[in-house]
Amino acid sequence: MIIRSNTVNLLKRLSKYIKKLTKTKKTTIKDIANVLNISPAAVSKALHDDSRISDKTKAAVKTVAKKLNYQPNHLASALRRGKSNLVGLIVPRTNSNFFSSVVQNIEEVLNKKGYNIIITQSNESFTKECSNIDTLLFTQVDGIIASMANETIDLDYFEKIKSKGIPLILFDRGENDLNVDYVGINDYDSSHMIIEHLVDQGCKRIAHIGGYRHTRIFNNRVKGYIDAINKHNLPLEDELLIESSLTIEDGREKMEQLLALENRPDAVYVAADYAALGALQVLEEHQIRVPQDIALVGFGNEPFTALVSPSITTINQHSAEIGKQAALTFLERVKTPGAKQTLNKIIFEAELIVRDSSNKKG
Amino acid sequence: MIIRSNTVNLLKRLSKYIKKLTKTKKTTIKDIANVLNISPAAVSKALHDDSRISDKTKAAVKTVAKKLNYQPNHLASALRRGKSNLVGLIVPRTNSNFFSSVVQNIEEVLNKKGYNIIITQSNESFTKECSNIDTLLFTQVDGIIASMANETIDLDYFEKIKSKGIPLILFDRGENDLNVDYVGINDYDSSHMIIEHLVDQGCKRIAHIGGYRHTRIFNNRVKGYIDAINKHNLPLEDELLIESSLTIEDGREKMEQLLALENRPDAVYVAADYAALGALQVLEEHQIRVPQDIALVGFGNEPFTALVSPSITTINQHSAEIGKQAALTFLERVKTPGAKQTLNKIIFEAELIVRDSSNKKG
DNA sequence: CAAATCTGCTTAAACGTTTAACTAAATTTA
DNA sequence: TAAATTTAGTTAAACGTTTAAGCAGATTTG
Asked: What is chain A's mean pLDDT, rounded?
């Protein structure tokens, strides 16, 4: 009968509390403690499956927690433990397939480990990037995973992250100078693969519309282009190597520039798909056959590259793997909080996807 | 000389603290208070420009704060004030131009008011959407702005947000049944505009590849289609009205289906741009002239619609305005926390962008 | 069978801010 | 010039958790 009367008592206390709670706000650990006549500390431990709490108490705590619709206060726990379980993300933009896929995979991996992510966009602007960093630090994130804006040259703001002692992981657009983890693809080799392929298709005069060389990945693509051109004893001329911002409009403009040359190229390798699309439009407008007259290769495997006609040959950047690896690298870093960050590169080999825009052999 | 010696003292205390801080972690309000020999409360008030703190003290606090590189602990302040200054976003995906633009504009408006946003993606999955809601509630967001997944029919999880008493604002994909704020465009009218335009181009047999009708916006587009067709005394036939998931593949499939008809349509209105692109591919493959043989209209004004050839006529959804308005609506709601949420629709008129795929008059 | 160990809790402090309530001194008002 | 008000702070509690330290009582060990 003792058990029976205990149960009755519990029910009474419970209903009393439920009434009270409808008037007030949220259930806290204290409420559960009061219902069960134990200390809040015991409740906290029970909820975390601490070994020093009996199974009976654990079970009781959990059922009461459910009954009272208890939701842990994330802020309080984060404050006490000194970590927020939030990871900040900074990407140039989210409406590119590459970045959104990276983000999705980072999210997937981190969610499983109890982390949530805050996504911010820099829109390729240095100023916005800086304010994003401030925002994330202010929000007490446990780490930051970032891909730099095109504009970014000054790295003081990223140093700020490092100096706070929270992990910083860079992907795609990164800087060795920062001495932090980096995840990306081999841009240098990718250029080689592209040139190799174009040579294989019989192209003899290959132009490159590249990105700004102060951004390492674009510089690496340019270096790969130069070395591969030299390797094959093809003409390496200033007029064939163009630096640009790689927007669609820029792709159009630079393509017009190439078409205006006395000695036109028979292939153009554009360092980003959107710019390649702009270039393709211009080629069509000039009724130049692609790939017969001029072959075209892009970079990034944006979905539309498979959809336009002719479909565009491009490089698959393994966004999913990059995202996963960036997340895993972060998880590795938070394991040993005090540790000094060191340069640690993880490089995936890219994959060339040959499509109609460069496939002369059909 | 008193001032002089005070300054000297301050400097001493400051340097002492700076030394200490290099060893320990972050500057807190207490550190600043110690340096200046005032109470932490005074520091807090000074930093918030409380009128009961002298200008002199305010200035002193602010300079010391800067010197010590003070960053307010967002968690502590959020815990104390009972709000996190975080707003949760749930979108089906971020790699569509519409959603990323909405997100960007929400961010812009809210950042100015001191809010940060947490973006989550549902990937059109109901399960993921539910877990996103849990995540956001767990993170103690001050409000949620969401666009529903295609799959979502059961609204219990959204009711959960409401029952927590935090503002919920829906945009684009919403449900009247929830009785919350909604921001979107007039889908019904948009269909009318499209049919009007096609009729104007001389089309007489217009098909519609629509979305799932349980999603209100797609249902509204279908209803608009039906009413407009009737209004113009055009044939309204089952075989011309197709329900689909509106992916590219689905667009291809349904277009094939339409082409297999004995009595083919002379125009197709597809309720999403990606599906319209799939349809366009199929038309090209069948060497059907667009718009001469069959005119095509999409929905959403994705960037590629202007870039493919023929460029695709589509509907501009005013993503920027929708984002801004959603954010402003949230800000309005948090002003009066206890207030019951009510149905409050803000509807923008959409804009038809006529391009080559439907322009027979050239 | 006394000492050591284990079990299952409790106590109390801490995380860094904010804020209601108080106070002492300075200033204004009647 | 005494009373009232203003100024510029201080004090202490609170937000909801977590956790180190402590402590009875039960069990094991030598």
From this structure: 90
| Protein CA at B38 to nucleotide C1' at C26, angstroms | 19
How many other CB atoms are there within 10 angstroms of residue B23's CB atom?
6
Q: Which of residues 59-118 of B touch strand D (CB under 7 A)?
A: 76, 79-80, 82
Residue B169's φ and ψ, nearest 5 degrees, are: -120, 130
pLDDT at residue B3, rounded to an integer: 39
Nearest-10 Cα torsion for A267, A271, A273, A275: -80
Q: How high is the pLDDT of residue B17?
A: 55
Domain B187-317+352-358, CATH among 3.40.47.10, 3.40.50.2300, 3.40.50.1100, 3.40.50.740:
3.40.50.2300
Collect all residues of chain B within an 8 Å Cβ-Cβ radius of residue A99.
95
Q: What value, to the nearest 5°, has the Cα angle with vertex A247 and ends A242 and A249? A: 90
pTM summary value? 0.84
d(CA A102, CA B6): 55
Q: Which residues of chain A have pLDDT under 70?
A: 1-25, 337-338, 362
Regions of chain B with pLDDT less than 50: 1-5, 21, 23
Q: How far apart are the first and last CA of chain A?
A: 87
- What positions of strand C are covered by protein, i.e. any atom < 7 Å from a CB? 7-20
Domains A83-185+319-349 and A187-317+352-358 agree in fold: yes
Contact (CB<8Å) A72/B138: yes
The yes or no reply on domain A83-185+319-349 and CATH 3.40.50.2300 is: yes
Give the nucleotide with minimal C1' distance to the Cα of B52.
Answer: D8
Spatial distance from the CA of A24 to the C1' of D25 (Å): 39
Q: What is the pLDDT of residue A13?
A: 58
Please give, rounded to a whole number of angstroms, the shortest distance from the CA of B221 to a CA of chain A: 25
pLDDT value, residue B44: 97
Domain locations in chain A as residue ranges: 2-72, 83-185+319-349, 187-317+352-358
Give the residue from chain A lying closest to B122, CA to CA. A104
